[in-house]
């Protein structure tokens, strides 16, 4: 369950820091009842950043991938290695 706290709670930075490290997830800060900030520990941020980079790399490699028709590839392999269709 995400932790949502009012901006006035930021006055107690030690409590916010301890909560971020203990829960290992972001704390959402509201201002006048609306979302305003997200606070998280450095470790949580680094994990999030590394995951985002890995996801981006996977998406890029998937976009570069070429798709081949299986029948055409198998036919070409058969012709190459067996001298014709089997």
Structure description:
This protein has 86 residues and is of the alpha+beta class. It has a single domain (3-81), classed as YefM-like fold (3-Layer(aba) Sandwich), CATH 3.40.1620.10. 55% of the residues lie in helices and 17% in strands. It contains 3 helices and 3 strands. The longest helix has 23 residues, at 42-64. The chain starts with a strand and ends with a helix. The mean pLDDT is 91.
Which SSEs are present, and which pair or pack?
Elements: E1 3-6, H1 13-23, E2 27-31, E3 34-39, H2 42-64, H3 70-82
Parallel strand pairs: 1-2
Antiparallel strand pairs: 2-3
How would you describe this structure in keywords?
86 residues, alpha+beta, YefM-like fold, three-stranded mixed beta sheet, 3 helices, 3 strands
How large is the radius of gyration? Answer: 26 Å
What letter string, H or E per element, gives the SSE order?
Answer: EHEEHH
CATH superfamily: YefM-like domain
Q: What is the name of the CATH architecture?
A: 3-Layer(aba) Sandwich
Q: What is the mean pLDDT?
A: 91
Compact overview of the structure:
The chain has 86 residues and is of the alpha+beta class. The protein has one domain (3-81): 3-Layer(aba) Sandwich (YefM-like fold), CATH 3.40.1620. The protein is built from three helices and three strands, in the order βαββαα.
